[in-house]
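Hi V.,

You were right to ask for the full record rather than a summary. Here it is.
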Amino acid sequence: MEVSFFGGAGEVGRSCIVVRSGDTRIMLDAGIKLGKETTFPEIKDSELRGLDAVFITHAHLDHCGYLPHIYSRGYTGNVYGTKPTLELVNVLISDYMHISEHKDITKEGLADFDRKQKVLNYGEELRVRNLRIRFQSAGHILGSSIIIVDDGEHRLIYTGDINLIKTKLLDGADLSNLHGDVLITESTYGGKHDLFNHQETSKQMVASIKTTLLAGGKIIVPSFAIGRSQEILLLLGDNMKSGAIPNTPVYIDGMINKAMRIHRHNVIYCRKELQTSILMSDYDPFKNDNFFPVEKPGARGKIMRTDDSSIIVTTSGMLTGGPILFYLPRMSSNSINKMILVGYQAEDTLGREIQEGAKEVKIDKRKVRLELAIESHHLSAHADRRQLEHLATKINGLKTIFIVHGEKSKSDELQEHFSKEYKAIVPKIGESFTV
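Predicted structure:
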């Protein structure tokens, strides 16, 4: 078995791995990297045309955004994902095509991409020539998967993005009956000191929101449309129901509203308590009298003109585009207002720039002075260092670990730890390894 890395190595973004065994070649993820410029996997057309199948771990653009490109560049096979993953991928790709101009994407490629989507359920085994592929839940977002690839001699386990702990939305990753000699793991939070207490963080965030609302301010929460936004909305709804946060309008903008509908239709993929709440009782946590979708023209301006306190949950999570770029300049001059960052902010993004302390930024070529309060509350759905260490112990027969999807310093620190027991490698983009 040979493994090649065309993206996501020494960086967060554009995840793209090709696995070869004999004459069989499959791709694991096909992502893009968002920032000041969008970058793509460094893979040749000839490599794409030779693929037998593509498998997507989950519906975030850094793992699926390259799909319309590969079909436009000559790939003709199927793309596999869980049912919710493919439904969410289509929403993301539609939005990606709407806001971006990519001359290399053809109508024929888009049509082929639309026709070639195939559902692979958790636990179901698919045979692609001499490879057997199976999905297990990764606990990251709705429908996210660990991918297990077996050629009869070697078994490879690819985490994609993974989370081992239970959240309001999902159970942690399914680590049952994992055995394999090769692991490819993410390392977003693989640094020595990346340890998080989500329960305490949630309490601190709720207290911060309450303080700002009682002072008469507005709160904006830039968030990923899929995963983080649903967790934030469930958190807000539960705490308004309990009285920990005063009942306040929560405006939901961007693709979040479409993603919410897909979550409700696929609630069987969520944790049991959420399924029971929706299917067996009158309480639906995805619906709340305080939630207001922002859909009508002029609604954003109206929200900004009112002096009333409110919470705005909107895309994009790293401030790389979307409605956040409308709201932030209009909220920035009032020190009573607050912006709360809840997820990972990649290098070379506006979100990272602000998180690192910038007080003046450029938005749409205009300088914006940031007078509003800015806080970071870590509610990411990525495994922290402790979880990543635990993951390796749950894989029987493990010998080799490839560490990807992390800033180089994080990946190197995780490699240092794993090297004590395993052959641990931080690959470079373009490198191939025989296992």
